[in-house]
Each structure stands twice: as structure tokens, then as C-alpha cells.
Amino acid sequence: MNQEEIQRICIEKDILLDAALLNLFSSFQNVSLLESFLEKLKISLGKKFITLSLMKKNLDKVNKFTQEIFPEEDPEREKICSEFDLKSNSIAKPSPQKESIQRKVRVLYSFYKSDKKPEIKDFVNYFRGRYELLKNILETNSELENLVSINKISGEKQKFSVIGIVSNKQVTKNKNLIFEIEDLTGKMKILISASKEDLLKEAEEITLDSVLGFQGTGSKEMLFVNKIIFPEAVLPERKKSDVEEYALFTGDLHYGSKKFLEKDFLKFIDYINGKVEGTPEAKKIKYLFIVGDLVTGVGNYPNQEPDLKVVDLEAQFQGVANLLSTIRKDITIIISPGNHDGVRIAEPQPPLDERYAWPLYEMENVILTGNPAIVSLGKSESFDGFNVLLYHGFPFPFYANVIPSLIAEKAMNQPEKIMKYLLKNRHLSPTHSSGQYIPLENDPLVIREAPDMFLSGHTHKSGVTYFNNILIVSSSSWEGFTPYQEKFGNTPDHCKVPMMNLKTRQIKILDFETGEDEVRLYHDEEVPKEGNEAGKTKI
To answer: According to the model, what pLDDT value does residue 360 have?
Structure first.
């Protein structure tokens, strides 16, 4: 690799190198590894101009990234170690404390980064990929009799089924519903008769761009639908761990806001650390999930500045890291981002930006994921573990204000109902206009496998329920009621933290709002079931 090639990389990455580093890297052969190394340095050091002296002042980070990126016995790894007087096998060893703690958390999916700029063809591939993924799921449903592609439907009246993505929806003067659907072979229209009241009610819940199955009678001109088949996520049973451990679920701390409930959050930390009398279960807490909006951010909505106590994003992360660092180190903290956390709004979101959230990256018991993310929890030799789906829920307001049943139920104050709706559609944000997204070919918002738990935040409303054996948890908030929330008709819950015993599946709803110390105990069979309210009882 010559210096011109290195300069090309630097231009693409918006990095400058001094002459000494240009000479050092000019003999490197692996372009992709060097790109990763420089990108890590830029983010971690917070500098675009990287010099030899700057790297010597940050040998611990140079050491760490060298061992992470370059394979052992790689000549380029040896060159870096030789230049900075490092031992090639001296890095990336966990601390004795970390080695002694068995952390049974594994990230199964998390989006990290893509430098590719979207093109028009990417949106086509995005929807094609989504169609294929959900079609494969729907094809296993036995109710889709005589399943055919649209281009194979003849002009003769017959009974058949199709799988299509919904591209248009309209109501006729006779109150019938007509949808236009398409697959990879063509388009057609389907009709749901107003005389079939139950079916019509179900059809009114269909959102655009969802992939569904339809069974009925008709021809290539029109299918008169008798059944609508959703690709809904279903679990055959509710798993139980063989070890008595506890997991806590929360989110929307909004640290940095003037309305951050710090006193109550400190009370929460005292509980976790076993400082509250009469709570022997606290010592068995091993996992803490924080599903987005860890900080309140800067410039997230008009005129936010008067609402801020901490006006700098990096300072917000430093402050919240100081709080989280007081939690016992044998508790693994899993953090995914939300729309306030200084990452892009478009989904999938990468993990928190290390330039600002670096204090969290230095915490040994913190795992940072993107949004959405899937993590395996509590796996052991004798237990498969729980698969946990984390999704902040930024598009939730769209569905709460578009889907008739969710409008009627004022679902922004019952977000578990929105979550059920998305599990039924097997997609976290099916409609094109419901949120911003990056058109990846393998749509990361498709729920490929039914999770054991589905966690969300964003609405600041607490909710716990089940759908097809999937545990649904919506987090309350640690930020007091704001005028911005009032504008959108949001009535938040504060400081409510569901805690699950992974062995018995009992759930405690802990309330740390000032002046209220009681908890309510739910056994697995007592958690509100499908169709019922969850987490609405004042504790």
C-alpha cells in the first residue's frame, strides 16, 4: 500500500495523518484492517488529525485496538507494537474481576455501522428482501390452501391463496375494503366484503407495506377474501431457567434533563446494591436492561435547551456513567440507544457513539448494542437461554394514531397493545412512512424468530403482558412530566421497574417514585394475558 492509497482512505474517513504515521502505514497490505484501526482511533480519541505523538499519549487505546483488529502473528500488528514498544500479546486480557464473573449475555444481532450511501435500488431490494423473509414464514401456514404466485392465477373463478405486500388500501361506496397487493411476479386487487363484519374489522387493522396471506375465491381480476393470515410471532411454550437469577427492565432515563428524577434513581441503585432492608432477592439480580434514551440529548425537539440541566452531550454521558458505575459489578448492564442518545434517528441505529459515550465503553460490566438488537440471556450447559428483543419504539406513535383499534384504546398510554400489533405483523415498523430507516437488503426490522421477551420504551408508559407466550415489557420513565409529552397526549409512568425471576417467571413491579416503596408480586400465571391491560395498578 502506497501513501496515495492511505491518503485516499483518510479522505474517505475524514482523517489526517502526520508524515510519521504515513510512513509507518505505507508498508501495510490489509486495507480493510487499517481502515478499521484508523476509524477506531478517530472515534476513541475524538480527533480527526492523528499524530504519532497523540498515539503515544494514548498507548492503552492503541494497544487495545491493535489486539482487537490485527490477528496474532500478523506482521502489521508486529509493526505497530514495535513502533510503540508494545508486546504483541499483552492486550485485551480482561481484568481479574471480569474473569471471575460469569456473564451469560451474548449479542445475537446488533447493527454497527455502514458507510454505504443508500441508492434508489436499495429501497427496491429492501422491500424485496422483506417480502421473501415473511413469505417464507407464511408459507408454513396450512390455512393458505392452493398457494400460488400472482402471475399464475388464471381468468377462471377458483379457490386459491396468495401472499403479498400491501401497496394500497381504499374503501368503496358500499363500505367494502379493496387492497392492492403485489408479489415478485405481479399485482392484483383483493376485496373484503362489508357483509363479513368480523373479517372487515380485521382488515381495517391492516397497515400498508405489511406482508400478509389471503385465502378466498376469485380470478386474476379480483380475489374475494375469506381469510386473512398474519405472520404473527408465536412461541410454543414459556421457558424457565434452571438458575434463580433476576433481570430488571427499564429505559428512558433522560439524564441531563431538569426533570430527571435523580433521587428516585439513586433509590433504585440502593435497592440493586442490596442497601434496602427486607429485599434478599436483590443479591440475585444479574441483568439490567436499559432500552434507549439513556440521556436526554441536545436539540432533540424545538426549544429543548430550557429543559436541560446538562447542556453538553458528552457531559450527559459522563454523568449517567458515574451513576451506573455505582451498581454492583456482577450485574451486567445491557444498553441500546433511543432517539435522544446522540445517534442517527434512522433505523437500525448503531450503538452509542464512542466519541460522546466513551465512559460507558470503559465500564467492564456494560454491553452496548444497536437498536433493534437481540441478546441471549442466561444460557448455560443445561438451558438454552432466553432470546430478548430490544427495540426503543420510535415509530409507536404512528401506529397508535393510524390503526383503528389502537386509536380507540389510546394506545400511546397502553404501548403493550402496539407491541402486540407489531408481533402480529412480525415487523417492528412495517409502514414506509412510520419512521426513518436505512434500506438494507436483509430488513433488520423483520422479527425473524419469535423472541422470549420483547422490550421497548419511548412512550414512558409501563406495561407488562403476554402475546402468544412472548413476554412484553414496556418501560416507564425517569423523567418528570414535560410540556412536550403533554402536547402529544402522553401520560407517563415514573420509576416503575419490572423485575423477572428467570427460574420461576414471577414478575415484581418495583416502584421507586418518591414516597412509595411497596412492590407488587405477579406469578407467571397472574401476569395480564392477551387482550388485557398490563401494569396499570398503582403500586
So the answer is: 93
Sign of CA dihedral 538, 308, 253, 267: negative
Measure Cα distances from 40 to 44, 48, 96, 129, 354 in Å: 6, 11, 25, 31, 9
Alpha-carbon 46 to chain mean position: 26
Give the domain range for residue 444: 246-526
C-alpha cell at 105: 449475555
- Of 520, 387, 404, 383, nearest to 462 by C-alpha is 520
Name the grid cell of 21: 504515521
Q: How far is CA 145 from the centre of its chain?
A: 35
pLDDT single digits (tens) 310-352: 999 999 999 999 999 999 999 999 999 999 999 999 999 999 9
Domain count, the chain: 3
CATH, residue 186: 2.40.50.140
Longest dimension (CA), the chain: 81
For residues 265 and 208, state if they share a domain. no
Tell me how far apart the alpha carbons of residues 174 and 251 are, in angstroms, rounded to a whole number.
47
Q: b/e for 26-40, b at 16 or more Cβ within 10 A?
A: eebebeebbbebbbb
Express each pLDDT in 103-153 by its tens digit. Answer: 789 899 988 776 677 888 889 999 999 999 999 999 999 999 999 999 999
Coil, helix or strand for 532? coil
Going by pLDDT thresholds of 50, 70 and 90, the confidence category of residue 430 is very high
Strand 211-218 to strand 373-377: parallel, antiparallel, or no bridges (unpaired)?
unpaired
Distances (CA, A) of 325 to 72, 317, 330, 353, 475: 33, 12, 11, 19, 21
